[in-house]
Amino acid sequence: MKGAPMQTGVLRVLRATAASWWQHRDLRRTGQTLLAQRLERQTVLRDLGYLTQAATLPNAHVICGEGGTFIHLGWTTVSTLAPIERFPLATLAVARGTPFIDIRPVTDVIAFANLPQVARDGSGDPGPSGSGKSVSLTTYIDMVEGLGARILNDPRSHQSA
After folding, report:
1. How far apart are alpha carbons 157 and 116 in whole angstroms?
2. What is the pLDDT of residue 32?
3. Average pLDDT, the chain
4. Burial class of residue 81, CB neighbours in 10 A (0-12, 13-18, 19+)
5. 132: how many CB neighbours lie within 10 A of its CB?
6. By the number of CB atoms within 10 A of the CB, which of 2, 80, 81, 108 ranks highest?
7. Cα-flanking dihedrals φ and ψ of residue 32, to 5°?
8. What is the average pLDDT across 91-115?
């Protein structure tokens, strides 16, 4: 984030999102305002941590498909069944520069399902990892783009040729 205006905007979005959760609204409605405020602060701090990880981890990325939106942060995944347009945390991560892979245009779901996973640590594993291989984020983007995915904040453009 560059400068205070972006930070203020991020905090405003995270606070509004936390306050809109039905659990927090219910607590306020039943007079448990202090508990609601404490839980909202915890939620905002957690989400700020996710945004920090998205900005610093080498293979962090956001992916959106018909099954929802996922923020992949190495060993942690944050997800929702909604498209990115209804997931403020993912929208903020992408706005801050996290690579975004939109797989909604992909029509060959079998080929997509057979792709290797993105390595959690920023590298690619030469051998199998579980039921399949893992590759670097840039290699994964090459593969999924070949299937028709749209890429935003492409990390390949930052690499030297």
Report:
1. 22
2. 95
3. 88
4. exposed
5. 12
6. 80
7. -95, 55
8. 95
